[in-house]
Amino acid sequence: MDFKQSPNVFILISNATISPQLLEIIRCLESHQINQHIFIIADEDNPLLTGVRELDISLRVLRSATKSRILGHSLVVFTHLLKHRPKTVLASGQFATFIGIPLAFMLRINNRIHVRHHSNFHHKYKMRVGLALDNIMNNSSTKIVAVSRVVRDILVQKEGVPVDKVLIIHNGVDLQVFNSKFRGVLRKDHTFRIGVISRLTEWKGVTYTARAFQNFLLLHPNSYLHIIGANADDFDKVTLALESVPREKYQIESVNFDIPGFLKSIDVLVHVPLDVDDEAFGIVYIEALASGTPGIFTISGVLNELHNPDLYFSVVPSRDHNAILDELEKHFTQSTVHQSVPADWLKQFSLEYQGLSYLKLLS
Predict the structure, then answer these.
(1) Paired strand residues for 98
(2) DSSP code for 222
(3) Angle at 154 between CA 152 and CA 156, to 5 degrees
(4) For 327-353, how does the pLDDT look when each residue is reduced to its tens digit (9 = 90+)?
């Protein structure tokens, strides 16, 4: 770590958003010789820290943020900003944004940018503190990156942010990893495999998929449900919906680091958020479309930007396990056929496209 040279760009990232997307931004800036200082608020065992360290850039890691650590982290960041006075501060993640953007505002740093990753969450659940903090961040930033049109519309229409202050840069996906031919429908063991990639929280709608699978299994005993998702507020409802399902017929795991392999191992992916603006982005949609994995989806997040979506996957109404069941039956009998999503549409979600978009913003 060498902080002797003052940076053009100071990037503050908190744990939840350390991702290949952020790594690509850092890599792109480095390759174009943009001097940057990176502060990451995360546990040392976060696997993506290794990728950042391999870039041999100016990096400091602060322990994962908690309420008790915010003041200490803020003092560290304030001291660094005061000493080095970067031209631009970019914050990604709520803790990073809550710490970095107000401090940059206080120090009158010219370019104060935060990435808005969340959608309507604070509005949906009437979270006054969250809404107040969002308002402070919006007013303290000179530019806000929205990860989708849905997020931009919430910022502009619900939160009163001037439209020229908001820039859409989609999250990037390593399309090369996912872009390979899907292997077909029934596997050698004749098990019909249904996949879910979703945190087990109420608005993700996983309970409706579980109910649909419970009924589907009665019709097709050689079926299997595989859920990848961290435990959250709807975990008990999901497990209750699967109470009558034999334990060997389903699996719930909190994390899986081989999503491309997982998508190629299933016959259909189900992702059914409850409302059109619940997903801020919905990276699982892009991963599934890039891999050619058949999908049963509700329209949310970035899918609002896809014209004629029912050409490419099965569209179901939200909160309707019977509709999911009907579409599962169609996929099982191979009575539904969908086109591949246009390559030109997918291209805008590549890591390379995202990296160059941030390079243009931060140069």
Answers:
(1) none
(2) S
(3) 70
(4) 999 999 999 889 999 999 999 999 999
Distance CA 89, CA 37 (A): 10
Pick from 323, 322, 41: which is nearest to 49 by CA?
41
Concatenated DSSP letters of 145-211: EESSHHHHHIIIIIT---GGGEEE-PPPB-HHHH-S----SS-TT--EEEEEE--B-GGG-HHHHHH
The letter for the amino acid at 286 is I
Query: How open is the CA angle 85-88-92, to the nearest 5 degrees?
Result: 120
Q: What is the pTM of this model?
A: 0.93
In a 3-state reduction of DSSP, which class is residue 253?
strand
Matching CATH number, 176-347, of 3.90.190.20, 3.40.50.2000, 3.40.47.10, 3.20.20.105:
3.40.50.2000
What CATH number does the domain located at 9-170+350-362 have?
A: 3.40.50.2000
